[in-house]
Design brief:
The chain is mainly alpha-helical. It has one domain: Growth Hormone, Chain: A (Up-down Bundle). It is built from 13 helices and no strands. Helix 3 (about 65-85) runs antiparallel to helix 6, helix 5 runs antiparallel to helix 9 and helix 9 (about 240-260) packs parallel to helix 12.
Length: about 375
């Protein structure tokens, strides 16, 4: 039976799959002898194709093609799983298959967010909070899978992990048939369905959208960098992969906790102020991960960072959805995702070039500074809460 519960299941499986394949790809690169400064290119490749096509996918969804978007996305991710398992003997092949995974992920997630925006229009904070909470549950489960498979070894069995990823994507594809149907969005009179008309909004709204997208971009980039560079830091400090898996799960669990109570937090603090304060806390915690210390301290810092980082994504979705004119919600959500992909592609690629000189620890310092700067900028751009 088609129901919103199927959408939440779909969201869980999508994030579970994505957060299995990405650190596993980093471990496979290390197995292949790839230099640590090039590991960040894996995160960049995931974002490469979506960076170009995100807005077009959003317009396609606004015209009523949500189900095809979800089906094609699941099929691409499943096919990429077979490819990365069977043909990933070089950095180039890893980058290609991760790019396909990224495209499939984009198609699926735009479809998901369109359905959430439609089904939860009256309670956006609660709807996106629940949606991202379930996604965080998938993110938390993925490192536990990594931990179980890896055990005490520094490098886990990447072949088995890629098989688990592929099976997860196949189930995701099957669940797509159970998702609720989306209505074709109504266009505004005279808009003609063009991209230019969809993006024609008042200046104040544009500033708010820009601030929300910038916040979303840096927050997601920080999460990605943690996913990719924490395993690399673990190898440098001889921390078992099972422990790294637990640390990643702590981050995801803390993110999940913040999203579960997002509606109450927003009602008490306000969207703008909450976005600002949470990003400051995240920046300080991420930067502190660079400091040498016991694994337990890293766990505490990741819990704090995870809780704070978990707030930015759903808040940015809510801000964008609330501000988007009728019939353009998917386009603006996709534009937000396009900004995310800019952060996911450009930031890791740039930092990879400096890894040799600043070390893996330096990546966390720079990421923290970037979050602090984003908090200040978003505070200026995002309109005050009504």
């Amino acid at each position: 039976m088609k129901s919103p519960a199927a959408l939440l299941c779909h969201a869980f499986l999508l994030q579970l799959a994505a957060y299995i394949v990405r650190p596993t790809s980093a471990y496979r690169a290390i197995e292949l002898g790839v230099d640590p400064e090039l590991v960040g290119l894996i995160a960049a490749s995931f974002a490469l194709i979506p960076l170009v096509v995100a807005v077009s996918v959003g317009r396609w969804n606004d015209r009523g093609h949500v189900l095809p978007s979800l089906l094609i996305g699941g099929a691409l991710m499943t096919g990429a799983g077979l490819g990365i398992h069977l043909w990933s003997g070089s950095l180039a092949s890893l980058l290609i298959w991760n790019a396909v995974v990224g495209l499939g992920h984009l198609l699926a997630i735009v479809g998901q967010q369109t359905l959430v925006a439609e089904l939860g229009r009256e309670r956006l904070d609660s709807a996106f909070g629940t949606y991202t909470f379930v996604g965080s549950l998938g993110q938390a489960a993925a490192p536990l899978v990594l931990s179980v498979v890896g055990g005490s070894a520094v490098l886990p069995d990447t072949g088995l992990l890629f098989v688990i990823y592929t099976v997860t994507c196949a189930v995701l594809l099957a669940v797509t048939g159970l998702l609720p149907s989306a209505r074709k969005a109504d266009r505004r009179p005279g808009d003609g369905g063009t991209l230019r008309s969809a993006l024609r909004v008042p200046r104040a709204t544009r500033r708010t959208m820009t601030g929300a997208m910038l916040l979303s971009m840096l927050v997601l980039a920080a999460v990605d960098l943690i996913q990719v560079y924490l395993p690399a830091l673990g190898v440098e400090r001889e921390i078992p992969s099972a422990t790294i898996g637990v640390l990643l799960a702590v981050r995801a669990a803390a993110t999940m906790a913040s999203r579960l109570g997002l509606a109450r937090l927003t009602a008490r603090v306000g969207r703008n102020r909450l976005a600002h304060l949470s990003t400051i806390v995240a920046g300080l915690a991420v930067a502190a991960l660079a400091l040498p210390g016991p694994v337990a301290v890293a766990g505490i810092l990741l819990a704090v960072a995870g809780f704070a980082l978990g707030i930015g994504q759903p808040l940015s979705m809510t801000i964008v959805t609330a501000a988007a004119p009728a019939g353009t919600t998917s386009t603006w959500l996709a534009l937000r995702l396009s900004g995310n992909r800019v952060g996911q592609s450009v930031i890791p690629a740039v930092l990879s070039a400096f890894t040799a000189s600043i070390g893996t620890s330096g990546i966390f310092v720079i990421t923290g500074i970037g979050l602090l700067g984003t908090a200040a900028t978003a505070r200026i751009l995002i309109a005050d809460d009504p």
